Automatic annotation (TrEMBL):
<dbReference type="InterPro" id="IPR037401">
    <property type="entry name" value="SnoaL-like"/>
</dbReference>
<protein>
    <recommendedName>
        <fullName>SnoaL-like domain-containing protein</fullName>
    </recommendedName>
</protein>
<feature type="domain" description="SnoaL-like">
    <location>
        <begin position="32"/>
        <end position="144"/>
    </location>
</feature>
<dbReference type="InterPro" id="IPR032710">
    <property type="entry name" value="NTF2-like_dom_sf"/>
</dbReference>
<dbReference type="Pfam" id="PF13577">
    <property type="entry name" value="SnoaL_4"/>
</dbReference>
């Protein structure tokens, strides 16, 4: 390689590159999936059973494994219809998810996210949620919600 080419390459390598523009992330439909999960969490917070049942397949399941508020541990599972029948408006229940991972293939999707649960403003439980969703007639609905649960090590 001639010396002039080597020197030119070194000069270019030392020069700062111009600042690039950030491109928005591609939209793979994640917003509609996330909106469905957010709406479901809002119904849990308000205790709005009829609104919950519009976002889920009633025969789908809510399944938890771990230690629950009150100290009980093990496996709990019931249909969304059974779960909705036990919802209590104004209970002070708040569930927050963070950093959700969304995967989608056609009309099937899953959301995996760490969560915390507050009751009356006090942190009482945490774990990971796994929502599986199915899109039917252009609308995402939750088929199942499976979660781990613990009452210790949840942070502040």
């Amino acid at each position: 390689m001639p010396m002039i080419t080597v020197l030119s390459a070194l000069a270019l390598a030392a020069a700062p590159l111009p600042q690039g523009e950030r491109l928005p992330p591609p939209d793979f439909g994640d917003k509609a999936i996330a909106a469905t999960v957010d709406a479901l969490l809002a119904t849990l917070e308000t205790g709005d059973a009829p609104a919950l049942l519009k976002l889920v397949y009633p025969e789908g399941r809510v399944t938890g494994r771990g230690t629950f508020v009150g100290g009980a541990s093990g496996l709990r599972s019931r249909s969304f219809a059974e779960y909705a029948a036990r919802m209590v408006p104004g209970s002070g229940f708040i569930e927050r998810i963070t950093n959700p991972v969304i995967e989608q293939d056609g009309d099937v999707a899953m959301v995996w996210a760490p969560f915390t649960i507050l009751m009356g403003g006090k942190l009482v439980s945490c774990g990971f949620d796994h929502f599986d969703l199915v899109r039917e007639n252009g609308q995402w609905k939750v088929m199942n919600l499976t979660f781990s649960s613990r009452t210790e090590g949840c942070g502040a």
